[in-house]
Amino acid sequence: MKEIKDRQQPKKQKTNHTIDYEDKNPPPDDYRQLNIVPDVKEILSGTATYLRKIIVDGVYDNPRQYLDIHFRLLREDFLGPLRDGIDQYLHNVEGKNFNVRIYENVRSHGPRLTPGSGIVYDLRLDPKVASKIFWVNSRRLMFGNLLVLTYNRFNSCIFATVEDRSNIETNFTISVKVLERINMTEQTEGDLDEIAFSHVLTMVETTTYFEAYRPVLKALQSIDITKPFPLEPFLLKLTNEKIPPDYIRRETIYDFTPLLVDPDSPVNSTLSKFERVSFSITYKQSNQVPDKYKSVALLDTNQWPTSDELQLNPKQREALMLALTQKVALIQGPPGTGKTYLGVRIAEMLLHNRSVWCPPGAQSTPILMICHTNHALDQFLELIIERLNINDGVIRVGSQCKNPVIQKFSLRNARQRARENRSIPSHIYHQRHTFLDRKKDAEEELENYQNEIEQSRTDIISLSSLIGGKIIENKHLASLRAPYCGINNETVLFDWLDIIPKYKLIAVDQTNLMDFETPMPNINTIECNQKITSDSYQSSTDEEYINEEEEEEQRRRGETDIDDDDDEFMMRSKRKSESTKVKISRRNDGNSIRERQWNHAQREAEHRDRSIKFIIQNPTTLDDQTVKQIHSDLWHLPMWNRYDLYRYWLLKYQQYLHNSVLEARILYSEAVSALAEKSDSDYYILKDSLIVAMTTTCAAKYHDLLERLQSKIVIVEEAAAIFEAHIITALSSKCEHLILIGDHIQLRPSPSVHRLATKYNMDVSLFERLIKNKFPNVRLNIQHRMRPEISYLMKHFYDDLEDHISVKENRPSIRGVDSDIFFINHSHPETTVADGSSKRNEYEGNYVIALAQYLRKQGYPAEKITILVMYLGQRQFIAKQAKSNNLLRGVHIMVTDNYQGEENDIIILSLVRSSTDKKIGFLKTPNRICVALSRARCGLFVIGNMNLFAEVEDMWEKIVKSLADTNKIGTGLGLSCRQHPKEKYIADTPESFFKRIEGGCNKRCDSRLICGHQCNLMCHNYDVDHRKIVCYKKCQESLPCGHACTKQCHTTTPNQHDSCRVMVEKVISPCGHKILFECGQTPTNNHCKQRVTACLPCGHNVNAPCPIVTRNEHNSCRVIVEKIISPCGHNIRFECARTPTEDDCKQLVIAELPCGHKTDVPCRIASSPYKLQSISCSNPCDTMLSCEHKCAGTCSTCHTGRLHIRCKEKCERSLICSHVCKEPCAVNCPPCERECETRCIHSRCKKKCGQVCSPCKE
User: Where are the annotated coiled coils located (predicted)?
Assistant: First the structure.
C-alpha cells in the first residue's frame, strides 16, 4: 500500500501544472508567438502553465488581455489531458488512464504521397491489441485526433494527427500526418521515415478532439489587435445601453409583411443573376397587409404591429424588437418556447428588408449564421429555406452536412456552379492554376524520391544513382567501370556484389523476353506475386496447347478457343503483360523441363533476396577516412569487404535522399498552404450570397475569409453552449449586429478539463456572461411542447414558464400505461465500459428496451419513440441489443447532449448512474437534467436510482419530492389494458413486460374478425377494429368440384377462391399419358414425365422425354460413329449429327519446328505455322559453353542457342590458393572455405583459406 502511495505522490506534484494568476500579473510571453502544439519540455517538466480566469463579473482592460486569457485556457483544455496522461504513464500510476490512450509496439511503414492529404505515414498497431477493439463503434483514432509518437520514453517525440483509419479493421493500419517534431537532446534524431524500420514506437492518443481546437487557436492568434475589435464596447466593456446597429438610422423604415401574412401562405424568393445584390421576396397574401405596416419606422415601437397581429406572444414580440433594433441582442429560450422558430422569423425580416443593411451600390455582404453542431445548423437553415422557398443565395460551408435538403447549398456545389457560369474573375483561376502546377511538380519530385528510398531498402541501387548523388569517389568509379571498357553498364554493382539483377530472373527464368521476335513457349498457370513493369522489359506471353479432351470440353461449354483466334491471343497476351501478377499454370508432368526450370528460378530468386537482405540490413563498419584509403582496384576486394563498402555508399545515398525529400517537402507544403490560403475564389462566391452558414469550428478555419466578407449581421444559434472564444473568431471587425439565441439553463460549454470550468470559468459562455452582467435580454416564457404534467418539472428550472393552450387540450394520454409521466426507481449497479470512461447500466438498458417494445405494441410508430441515455456506453449497449429486434427498428437511440433542440412524442430516459460510492457524474449538473426532462411532448418515462440522485444533488431531491407528491415515482410502471380496464399490472422488472405478450392483458381477445373467425391473439391494444389482423385458418368452403377450399382465410376475397389444389389423376392431351395433377388445373404436354422411343432420319433410335418428341426436337443424334475428317483424311469417333473439322483431329503427325527439329504434334497444329511456334522443342542443346562444359538445356530452354541456361556442372577450377572450387560452374568462385594452412614458428592461422590471415601477435 505504501508503495502505491509513493508512486502516486509524484503524480500529484507533477499534474498540478497550473497556477491561478491574478489579473494584474502580466503574461510571461506573447500568446501570438506560442506554438499550438506543445513541445516535449512543456509536456514533461513541472513548469507551471500561465492561466487566468475568464472575467465573468467585470470588464476586460483591452483586446490583448481578452484574447490572451481565452487562448491560453483553450490551449490548456486540450493540452492538460495529454500532459497528465503521459505523466501518469511515465510514473506507472495504477488505475485506468482516462486522459490518453496508449498503444505499444507500433511500427511505421514509412511515408506515402496521397492526392488529397499530401504526405502521410502508415502506422501499424500491435495486432494482439488492435484485434480486440470493436472499431465500428469506437471513438479511438478518429480523423483529426492528436498523436504523440516516441521510441525513447519522450526524450524526443513526433506530433501527428490521424488522417485515415479506414484500414484499421483489415490490417490494423492508420495513416497519420506529421505536425511537428521537437527534440530535447542535442543529437539530431531522424524523422519518422528514418526511424520507421529501426524502432518500435509508443503512440499516445489524447482523448480530446484536437481538430476542434486547432483552427480556433490559430484564429485567436491571427486577430489583429491593432484594428478595431468587433463590438468592443459591448463584449469587453459591457456597455448595456440600447444602441441600434450602425446601418439603422432614426428614419429607417421596415416592411413587416413577412410577419403579418399566414406563415403557411406561398412565398417566392428571387435573386438577380446579373446583379446579385438584387433580392426580393414576394408573398401571395401581401395585399391583405395594411399599408401602414409596410412602412414602419423601425425605432418607433409605437408603430409596430401588436402581438396578435404578428401572431406572436408578448415575450416573442419583445424578443423580436430587441433582435432587430439592438447591436447585441440576447434571446433566452427555455425548452419548447420556440426560440428556433423566432430565429427563423428574425432572419426572414432581415432578408425581406435587405436593402436597409445592404443598399444598392454598396459592397454586398451576407448574413453569417453559426451554430455549435452540424445538426442544429442544418435544421435551422432548412426551416429558413423552406419558409422563404429559396433556391439560390444560401451557402452551407463545411463537409459534415448530412441533410439532403441542405447538401445542394454546399460550398462545393457553389464552386462547381461558379466554374460552369465563369462568374469568378479570370486572374483568380490563373493564380490558382499556378499554385496547382507548383503542387503537381512538387508531388512528382516527392514521388520520385520516395520510390528511390523504397528501392534502396529492398534492392541494389544503380551506379547512376550513386553518381547522381555524388556519393562515389572518382577513383572508385573508374575501378568499377574498368572491366567494361568504357561501356556505361548499369549492372556494374550487381556484378561486383555477385547479385543477379531482377530483370534477368524475369527474362531468363520465366522465359518472358521482349527481345525475341518469335514468341517463346508459355508455362501455364502458377500464381506468382512478382510485379513486372513494362519500363525496361515487357513480357511476352505464349499459350501452350492443352489436352485434347479438355479442349473439347471447353468448346462444348462455349468457351473461347484461343488457337482459332489470333486476335484474341494477342489481346490476352497484352493483358497478361500489363497485369501485376504473372499467372503460370503447370499441367505438365512434375519431372518436365519446365518444372525444373521453374524450381531453379525460384531457388535463384530466394537466394538473391536473402543476399540483398543480408547486405542491406547490416550496418557498415566504415567511415569517411577509411573509405578514402581503400585502394583503387575494387574488383580485388574480398566479397565481405565489398559488402561493407556498398553499405557505406548506401548509407550516404539514403542520407542524400532524406535531405532531398526534406527540401521537396518544404516546396510541397508551401504550394499546398498557398493553395489553401488563397481563398479569393471562395470570397467571390460567398460575398454575393444572402446567407453563409457554418459551425463555429468551421468559422475559425475560415477566419481570414470571414474578415474579408465583413458580414454586418451575425446570428448565433445554440449560443449558450458555445465557448466564447469560438464566437469571437467568427466576428469580423465590421460586425455591427450580433444576435445570440440560446439558453444557459440547458447546455453550457463543456471543457475537457473539469477544473478549467470550476476554477477558470471556462464553462461560462459569452451569452451567459452578458446576461449575468445585466445585459439587455428577453426570456421567452410560453412553451408549446410538453403536456402540463411534464412541464411541471420545468418549474424547478424556470419560475415563469407557462403552458400554451394547445398543450393543455391536444395531448392524448399514452395507451397501455397508468401515467403519462413516471419515474422507475431501482438500485441495480452500473458498470464501466472497458474502452474509455463511459458508463452503462444493463438493467436499465434491458428495461427501456422492453418498455419500448411494449409501447410499439400499443400501436405507436417507431419514429414517435426516442430512447434517451446520459452516457455513450449505454447507447452502444442498447443499440447492440435492439439491432436484431424488428419492433425497435426505427426507434431513435440518442445521447442527451446530442438531442438538445429535438423533441418527440414519447421519451424513455435512462439515467445510468447507480453506485455505492455515491458518484453520479454530470447528473449533478442542472443543465443536463433540464435538457433530459424537457424533450417529451406526450409521455416521459425515466428509469434510474432516484434515491441516490436525491441524496447527492439538491435539484434531484426537489424533483423526486414533487414526483412523490403526485404518485409519479415507484419501483415499477403501472400497465393497463384498453379492453379490460380492471386488469392492472406493475412492470417492476424488464421481464414483466413479456407477460403482456401482445401489449394488452393476459386474457384472450375473442373478438370476431371480418371473415367471421375468432381472433386467436391474446388481448391487444393495437388494431382494435381488427382491420389489419391476419386470419391463418383454412377457408374450408366447398368448391364446384366438390372438394373443400384449402386456401388460408386471410388470402380470400369475397365470393372468390383459389382453384382446387387436391391432387387427382388426369389424362394429358394430345399424348394421352396420365399424371397426378391439381384438381383445378389442366395439364399440358409440357407437364408429361414419360419417356418415349423414336426413330431418327439417320436410322438410329432415340429415347427422349415425351414433350421433346411431340415438339419434334429430337433430331440431334448423339450416337458415336466412325467418321473421316476433311481435309486431313484421318478417322475419328464422333457424334452422328455433327461433322468433325480439322480442329477436332487428335492424330499425331511428324512436323518440322521453326528451329529445324522434327517432333510429334497433333494434326491440327501441324497445319498451322503460327501454332507450331508454340511447341517446345525437347531436343538437347549439347552446345559447348565458354566454360568448356556441354550445355544441359534443350533447344527450347536455350532459345535455339541464342541464350543458354546456366551451367550446372561443378566448377573444378583451381583457386588462387591452389584448392579446387566445389561450387557450381555458373556461380562466381567464392573465397576458399578450407582451413588456412599458413603458419609461423609462433602460431597457426585459424581463419579460412579465403580470408586475410591474422598477423602474428609476437
Answer: 432-466
| Any domain includes 539 | no
Query: Distances from the Cα of 463 to the Cαs of 460, 537, 622, in angstroms?
Result: 9, 19, 19
Shared domain for 981 and 839, answered yes or no, is yes
Among residues 59, 55, 70, 65, the alpha carbon closest in space to that of 25 is found at: 65
- Same domain for 868 and 957? yes
The pLDDT-based confidence of 842 (bands split at 50, 70, 90) is very high
Range of the structural domain that residue 1042 is part of = 1034-1061
973 and 849 within one domain: yes
Return the C-alpha cell found at 666. Answer: 518544404
The enclosing domain of 115 has a CATH number of: 2.40.30
Q: What is the DSSP string of 464-475?
A: HHHHHTT-S-HH
CA–CA dist 64, 79 (Å, integer): 22
Pair 1041, 987 in one domain: no
The secondary structure of residue 509, as a DSSP letter, is I
The two beta strands, 1091-1095 and 1101-1105, are antiparallel
Domain membership of residue 461 (yes or no) is yes
Q: At what angle do helices 872-882 and 842-856 cross, to 10 degrees?
A: 50
1048 with 926, same domain? no
Residues 828 and 847 sit within 8 Å (Cβ to Cβ): no
The DSSP annotation for 1081-1130 comes to S---GGG---EEEEE-TTS-EEEEEHHHHHTT-------EEEEE-TTT--
Phi/psi of residue 739, nearest 5 degrees: -115, 115
Give me the number of domains the chain comprises.
5
d(CA 1153, CA 551): 22
pLDDT digits (tens, 9 = 90+) for 342-367: 999 999 999 999 999 998 878 889 99
- pLDDT category of residue 780 using cuts at 50, 70 and 90: very high
- 1044 and 1150 in a single domain? The answer is no
Q: Which of 1000, 1020, 1052 is the last residue of a domain?
A: 1000
Q: Write out the three cell numbers for 18.
A: 497550473
Q: Does residue 799 share a domain with residue 857?
A: yes
Q: Would you place residue 479 in the very low, low, confident or very high pLDDT band (cuts 50, 70, 90)?
A: confident
Looking at the fold, whether 1048 and 1157 belong to one and the same domain comes out as no
Of 666, 686, 706, the position where a domain reaches its end is: 686
Mean pLDDT of the 1012-1039 span: 77
| pLDDT score recorded for residue 1078 | 87
What is the C-alpha separation between 922 and 939, in angstroms, rounded? 24
Q: What is the CATH number of the domain that holds 873?
A: 3.40.50.300
How many other C-beta atoms lie within 10 A of the C-beta of residue 486? 7
H or E stretch at 742: strand 737-742
- Asked which of 269-278, 727-736, 842-851 is least confident by mean pLDDT, the reply is 269-278
Contacts of 1097 (CB under 8 A, 6+ apart): 1115
C-beta atoms surrounding 173 within 10 Å: 18
The secondary structure of residue 1239, as a DSSP letter, is B
Task: Provide the 8-state DSSP code for 865.
Answer: E
What the block records as the C-alpha cell of 819 is 401515467
pLDDT one-digit tens code per residue, 134-193: 888 788 899 889 999 998 888 888 889 999 998 888 889 999 988 854 443 333 334 555
In a domain? residue 266: no
pLDDT of 111 > 80? The answer is no
Does the residue 836 lie in any domain? Answer: yes
Altogether, the residues listed in the chain come to a count of 1258
What's phi and psi for 1091, nearest 5 deg?
-105, 140
| Residue labelled with grid coordinates 382465410 | 1049
| C-beta separation of 939 from 820 below 8 A | yes
Residue pLDDT, tens place only, 1190-1206: 888 888 888 777 778 88
